[in-house]
Amino acid sequence: MEENMDESQSQKGCKECCERCVGSLPWASLIATILLYMGVALFCGCGHEALSGTVTILQNYFEVIRAPGDSVDVFTIIDILKYIIYGLAAGFFVFGVLLLVEGFFTTGAIRDLYGEFKITACGRCLTAFLMFLAYLFFLIWLGVTAFTSLPVFMFFNVWSMCQNTTTVEGANLCLDLRQFGAVTISEERKVCTGSEKFFKMCDSNELDLTFHLFVCALAGAGAAVIAMVHFLMALAANWGYLKDASRMQKYEDIKSKEEQELHDIHSTRSKERLNAYT
After folding, report:
1. Which spans in the chain are helix H?
2. 194: buried, middle or exposed (CB in 10 Å: 19+, 13-18, 0-12)?
3. What is the pLDDT of residues 188-201, one digit of tens each?
């Protein structure tokens, strides 16, 4: 009988512990962090490989070579974009951790687990600062999404021409890099339909793979935008919670101070009556 009671108490204790652990998780911030990491990883990984595939296509089929010296060309710009991708991956990893930690500390279940905590002005300012950063990064990711759609559009046109080679067989269509600003006006780097280079490019795996990698990078940027919106909603809710908790804390402090003063007054009067009686 006692063993059954001990088992039921242990099961009850495990259930309460699990409920408290699950309730202590900031689910909104956790979901937003996972979505942000997935989007950033997809954008950085696919974007980096797509840029490498673009370099291969430019060198093999358009015969573009690197400019000598320190002059800026399309390859230099691609290298700069790769370094930007490295910075985005590292920066948003740290930013996601900061937002997740902030979500843990402003969750009401954490307060119940570890006792009452003081809502300080520093905590409110930190949440407001993170809201500002989240809104700023939301605008940045909108720009990144718009910028990523440009190579998707360009590669889609080329990919569509390759998919419809029989339709464009009679037409004399050319892909001129000067139209995209990849080379200077004086350089003539183009591939025309019906040429051997055009058919080799269409038959190669680089074009199809690079196009779909840019599409995946665009999807990752869109996921990062959704994650930033999710973070903004979570931070706004946390800000409201901190503001209400701060007001409640001030009320509790004033109330406890008044009760202490009343207690001191009653104790002083009781001592005076006792002294008068004696």
Report:
1. 2-23, 27-60, 74-105, 108-114, 121-163, 196-203, 205-277
2. middle
3. 788 887 788 888 88
